[in-house]
Specification:
With 530 residues, the chain is an alpha+beta fold. The protein has 14 helices and 21 strands.
C-alpha cells in the first residue's frame, strides 16, 4: 500500500507527515517525533478506538489520506541540525567518499533500546551469520527481521531506525515489552533491559537458521548456531566427603561461558576458572544426606565464536534487587582456550596451536620488514640516466630479487596454510564450525555504564578488522581489503546512532572499576589458519 499524506495536531499546531501502513506504528511515531520533538517513549497518538500502540494493526485503524491524528505528550528538544552541512556523495572527492563508506552505521535509540542496539552491532562481528541469513529461505520472523536490518545497515551511510526489528523482538520476547513502572502517566515508556539477556534471546531465536558449508551455501541437517556458536561442556561431579562414591560425568551444550567476579578476581581467566571449578551441595545417594561435591567443567568442543559473559550483576538480599559488581577485571584481546578444555581436546589442538603462535610472530616480523623497505624505497632518489646512455634496441634486463628479499606475502601464506592444515586433527576438520586452533581474537564487546542492573546505558564495540580485514567461512581468512593496515588494532564504538573510532590503547578503560562503561559480554573469534 502506498504511503499516505496525513496531518498530526500537537500543542495547537498542525504538521504534515507521511504514514506508511506497511511499516509498524513505531516508524510513524518516529516521523511524528521529527516534527514535534515528543520522544517516542512518552508519546500518545490518538486513533480510532484509543491510543496507537507499537503492535497496533494498521488495518484496524484504517488510516486515510488527509486524516488528522491528535498527539499528546510533552515535547523535548527538537532534533538538532547536523553540526556540519550535509555533503552528498557526488560532491565528495575519492578520499572523502572512501572514508564515509568505510564507516559502519549506527542505530537510533527508540526509547531505552540501547541494550538491543549494542547487541545487534556486536553480532555483526559474525560474518558467517549474515551469510547464513542471506542464503536461508524461508526464515522465522526474528531471523528474517535481523537479516533485513543488517541489509539496511549495509546499504546506507545514515543511521538506521530499527523500528521493525524492535517490534518483532518484542513480539517474540514479550519481556522486552515491559513498561518502566518508575514513571507514571504520559512520562511512562518501555523499561531498560539486560543486553546479555537480549544476546541470549536473539541467539535462541536463531537456532533454527540452517547451517552453511565451507563455500557459504546453506546445508540441510545442520543449524548455524550449533555449528558456529555452541560449545560442549564436560562436567565431572565428585563427592568430597566419600571417596568410594564414583564420580558422575555429564555433557552439556553451552552458548556461553561465564566469568565470575569475586573479591580476588583481577583477570578474566581467573573468573572463568572460578566458574568452571565450583563447590556444590547436593543429596548423596551413598551418604543418604546432603554433601559437598567438587564440580569440574571443561570444554570438549570449542565453537568458532566463543561468548564470555562477565557476571557483573548479582542479587543482593539486603536491598532486595540486583546490583552491579564494580570490580576491575582485565580481559584478554587474545585468548588461549587450551586452559579450559578437556585433556583429550587439548591433545588435538596443541600441535596446530603451538605452530600458529610461531607463524604469527614470523608474519609480524615480515610486515615490519616490508614497511621499512617501503619507507626506504619512497625516500630514496630515483635513478637518472642520460639519453646517450640509453639503447632502445637492447632489451631491458628483468628485475632480480635482491639477496635476502622477502617472498610475496601470498606465497608465504599459502605455504603456511598448507603446513597448518596438515597439523589439524582429522576429527576437527570434519566438524565444520568448530575452532581448530583453540586460539581466539577478541572481536566484539558489549559494555554497561551505570551502577544499577535495571538502568544505565549499553554500548557496542567491534574491531575494525571485522569490517575491513577480509571475511572467513572455511577457516582461511581472505586477504584484507585494499588500503587496510593489518596492524590496525583500533575499534569502532557504537553509542546508538553515534559511531566513532575507539583506539586500542583505550580498551583498558572498559575493564570496569567504577560506574563508567564495563565489559559485560565479550565475543571471541577463533584464529584462522591463513
Amino acid at each position: 500500500m502506498a504511503p499516505l499524506a496525513v496531518h498530526i495536531k500537537h500543542a495547537g499546531k498542525v504538521h504534515d507527515v507521511e504514514l506508511d501502513p506497511d511499516l509498524p506504528p513505531t516508524a510513524f511515531k518516529e516521523a511524528v517525533y521529527q516534527v514535534t520533538g515528543v520522544p517516542i517513549d512518552r508519546m500518545k497518538v490518538m486513533v480510532k478506538g484509543g491510543v496507537l500502540k507499537d503492535d497496533t494493526d494498521w488495518k484496524k485503524v484504517a488510516p486515510k489520506a488527509g486524516q488528522t491524528f491528535m498527539v499528546i505528550g510533552a515535547a523535548g528538544e527538537l532534533p538538532k541540525p547536523p553540526e556540519k552541512p550535509v555533503v552528498f556523495l557526488e560532491d565528495m572527492n575519492e578520499s572523502e567518499m572512501a572514508q564515509v563508506l568505510a564507516m559502519p552505521v549506527g542505530l537510533r535509540n527508540l526509547g531505552n533500546t540501547c541494550y538491543m542496539n549494542a547487541t545487534v552491532q556486536a553480532m555483526r562481528a559474525i560474518p558467517e551469520l549474515r551469510i547464513a541469513l542471506g542464503t536461508s529461505f524461508p526464515l522465522d520472523v526474528l531471523p528474517k527481521a535481523l537479516r533485513d536490518l543488517y541489509n539496511s545497515m549495509s546499504q546506507t551511510t545514515e543511521s538506521v531506525v530499527p523500528a521493525s526489528f524492535l517490534n518483532v523482538l518484542r513480539q517474540v520476547v514479550p519481556q522486552f515489552s515491559e513498561l518502566d513502572r518508575s514513571k507514571a502517566g504520559m512520562m511512562s515508556g518501555y523499561a531498560q533491559q539486560d543486553a546479555e539477556e537480549c544476546w541470549s534471546q536473539i541467539t535462541n531465536a536463531l537456532k533454527e537458521v540452517p547451517g552453511i558449508d565451507d563455500s557459504g551455501c546453506s546445508v540441510s541437517g545442520k543449524k548455524f548456531v550449533d555449528q558456529f556458536m555452541t560449545g560442549e561442556m564436560r562436567r565431572e561431579l565428585k563427592c568430597d566427603e566419600d571417596e568410594n562414591e564414583p564420580p558422575t560425568v555429564s555433557t552439556e551444550r553451552v552458548l556461553k561461558i561465564e566469568c565470575n567476579i569475586s573479591n580476588t578476581t583481577n583477570y578474566m581467566l581467573t573468573g572463568i576458572m572460578d566458574a568452571l571449578n565450583q563447590k556444590v551441595e547436593k543429596n548423596s545417594s551413598f551418604l543418604m544426606r546432603e554433601a559437598i561435591y567438587s564440580q569440574t567443567s571443561r570444554m570438549s568442543r570449542l565453537p568458532s565464536y566463543l561468548t564470555v559473559h562477565v557476571v557483573r550483576f548479582a542479587w543482593r538480599r539486603d536491598i532486595g534487587k540486583k546490583a552491579k559488581i564494580m570490580r576491575k577485571v582485565k580481559f584478554a584481546t587474545e585468548f588461549d582456550a587450551l586452559d579450559i578444555v578437556t585433556p583429550e581436546l587439548a591433545q588435538k589442538l596443541t600441535p596446530v596451536s603451538r605452530r600458529l603462535k610461531e607463524i604469527e610472530k614470523e608474519r609480524t616480523e615480515r610486515r615490519k620488514v616490508r614497511k621499512r623497505t617501503k619507507v626506504a624505497q619512497s625516500s630514496a632518489p630515483a635513478p637518472s640516466a642520460s639519453r646517450s646512455d640509453m639503447n632502445v634496441d637492447e632489451p631491458q634486463a628483468a628485475p632480480t630479487a635482491a639477496p635476502g628479499e622477502l617472498e610475496e606475502e601470498d606465497v608465504c601464506r599459502s605455504r603456511e596454510l598448507a603446513e597448518l592444515e596438515g597439523l589439524v586433527d582429522p576429527s576437527l576438520k570434519e566438524d565444520f564450525g568448530c575452532s581448530v586452533t583453540g586460539l581466539y581474537d577478541l572481536v566484539a564487546i558489549v559494555t554497561h555504564k551505570g551502577a544499577q542492573a535495571d538502568a544505565g546505558h549499553y554500548m557496542g564495540f567491534v574491531k575494525k578488522s571485522v569490517f575491513h580485514g577480509g571475511n572467513t567461512v572455511n577457516g582461511s581468512a581472505s586477504r584484507p581489503e585494499k588500503g587496510f593496515d593489518e596492524d590496525d588494532e583500533d575499534w569502532y564504538k557504537f553509542d546508538d546512532d553515534k559511531v566513532s573510532i575507539f583506539p586500542k590503547e583505550k580498551l583498558g578503560t572498559i575493564d570496569g572499576g567504577g560506574e563508567d562503561s564495563s565489559a559485560y559480554v565479550l565475543l571471541y573469534k577463533s584464529k584462522t589458519l591463513g
